[in-house]
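Sequence, please.
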């Protein structure tokens, strides 16, 4: 594999890592304000849950449709540092537009949706750029360490912003939450000015990944199909991810049903959400501490069993403590899966198409969310939360055991 020449390999690599991690923390922290504020604002202005659904759907669709084009655009750029700064500036301008709409009390749902979609599209550049920068700035055996650290930073920021927003909304006008997000982009942009890009970066050809990925720019499926053709061990990982995404998409529905119907205390919904998030943070930290001793395919095997087992514990427990333990374990399993998957993609996809193909891969996974969001609530209404969790948990656990028994999670993923 051709080498990537890094400027300032020693101290520079450490400095770059700190910049990326701090930037990810601040970015996620600020974005949390806008995400929550948009839902509160839409609910307060229009007093109809349908509007919240339309807003969510309007943001979701461009994320799927534009995944490959955004990735392709990133792959065409040689100076990713400046592209990242430009995306921060564009996202900050979009947040200011939303702030002005609220400040002058311009209650136009169409305008609000347009501003929210534009903001989300510019925000979508952040992840593929960071994925590619990780490959350019660090050694191959450091990818999972960096990805685990990023996951920890983002989860911590999400938890912190969620708690802070809850307190601020009790006395602060809603429009000022968008200013917090605007300031976060300003801070991130200034921090990124100190990022050291590689002086020379070649386009490596990585192992089994084949040649250049060619597909219609708007056809994410085409890129993923070639990826699976060139690297078959990834196929069972993708199938499992699709199934998990369907199961875990309506988390808020599970929390509301368990707190209201089973434990007769709706206030537990917030506690459950916090335990799930803390579990995710714990999983990220555990991965970060143990990645040198545990191989990637082992992390994936653990996650594939842990998700349905912990879902069963969460849904079938008669005791709130056991239910919360189940949520901790469920949240902790997801970083094992997510970090490992991202690391595998960074190692097997040629750098010249990394953003395009990896963005397409994750957009395909996200495409299954509406199935879970629309279908599972109907099943819960028909069967009840207890029966659904039993059937779903046993079915997924059985499938996981079959995958492991057939040795489908291959050491080739390492």
């Amino acid at each position: 594999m051709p080498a990537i020449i890094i400027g300032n390999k020693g101290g520079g690599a450490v400095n770059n890592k700190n910049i990326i991690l701090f930037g990810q923390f601040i970015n996620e922290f600020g974005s949390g304000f806008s995400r929550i504020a948009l839902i509160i604002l839409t609910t307060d202005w229009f007093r109809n849950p349908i509007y919240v659904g339309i807003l969510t759907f309007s943001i979701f669709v461009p994320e799927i449709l534009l995944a490959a084009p955004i990735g392709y655009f990133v792959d065409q750029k040689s100076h990713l540092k400046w592209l990242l700064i430009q995306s921060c500036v564009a996202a900050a301008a979009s947040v200011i537009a939303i702030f002005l709409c609220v400040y002058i009390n311009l209650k136009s749902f169409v305008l609000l949706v347009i501003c929210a979609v534009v903001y989300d599209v510019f925000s979508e550049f952040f992840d593929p750029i960071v994925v590619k920068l990780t490959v350019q700035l660090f050694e191959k055996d450091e990818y999972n360490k960096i990805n685990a650290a990023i996951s920890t930073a983002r989860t911590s920021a999400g938890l912190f912003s969620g708690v802070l927003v809850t307190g601020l909304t009790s006395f602060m006008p809603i429009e000022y939450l968008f200013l917090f997000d605007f300031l976060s982009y300003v801070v991130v942009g200034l921090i990124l000015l100190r990022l050291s890009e590689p002086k020379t970066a070649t386009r490596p050809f990585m192992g089994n990944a084949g040649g250049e990925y060619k597909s219609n720019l708007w056809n994410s499926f085409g890129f993923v199909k070639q990826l699976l053709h060139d690297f078959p061990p990834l196929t069972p990982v993708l199938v499992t991810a699709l199934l998990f995404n369907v199961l875990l998409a309506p988390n808020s529905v599970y929390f509301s049903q368990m707190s209201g119907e089973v434990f007769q205390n709706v206030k537990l919904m917030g506690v459950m959400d916090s335990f799930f998030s803390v579990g995710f943070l714990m999983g990220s930290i555990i991965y970060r501490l143990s990645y040198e001793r545990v191989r990637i395919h082992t992390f994936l095997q653990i996650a594939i069993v842990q998700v349905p087992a912990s879902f069963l514990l969460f849904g079938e427990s008669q005791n709130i403590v056991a239910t919360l333990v189940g949520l901790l374990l469920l949240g902790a399993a997801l970083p094992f899966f997510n970090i490992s998957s991202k690391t595998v993609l960074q190692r097997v996809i040629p750098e010249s198409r990394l953003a395009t193909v990896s963005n397409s891969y994750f957009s395909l996974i996200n495409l299954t969310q509406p199935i879970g969001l629309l279908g599972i609530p109907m099943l819960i209404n028909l069967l009840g939360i207890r029966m659904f969790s039993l059937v779903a948990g046993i079915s997924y656990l059985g499938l996981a055991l079959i995958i492991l028994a057939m040795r489908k999670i291959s050491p080739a993923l390492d």
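Residues 209-414 form a domain with the Growth Hormone; Chain: A; fold (CATH 1.20.1250.20).
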